[in-house]
Amino acid sequence: MKALLSAALLLGLGALQARAETPAEPPAAAGAAMVDLTNASPESLTRLRDPFQRPVIHEARGTPKTELERYSVEQFELLGVVTGPIRMRAMVRAPDSRTHVVAEKMRMGNRNGVVKRITATSLVIREKVMNLFGQEEEVDTELKISSRAKEQAGGGG
User: Does the global pTM surpass 0.70?
Assistant: First the structure.
């Protein structure tokens, strides 16, 4: 019995030793291609994306259908909110100094934004953007009434 146990131990240790002597293969990422950088030229290294920077997103933009779709949402300034018996509307100023009145479900912004909600002090626009992984994601941007608009409203007459 002792001889059988010692033989099994020796066989087990031999297998472990043989496994330790063979170099381990690097684990392959799920579907990701491994890049060999040992013989890479400096020019090819400059083409690799910096992992600490946001990726540049190339969006296929057609011609904007309305004036509200020419600029990014962050460039608009919320001037005020008009309340009504049925729904609220918001007054915004575009970067070209033109004023527009928007309602819920209207398109706004150059990333297919849609006005989702209008409150007494803010406007919420939902846009579709690409995240770091290249997946489409919905992002809400909230515009609040600007302090300049508050001063003009309070300073009048």
Answer: no
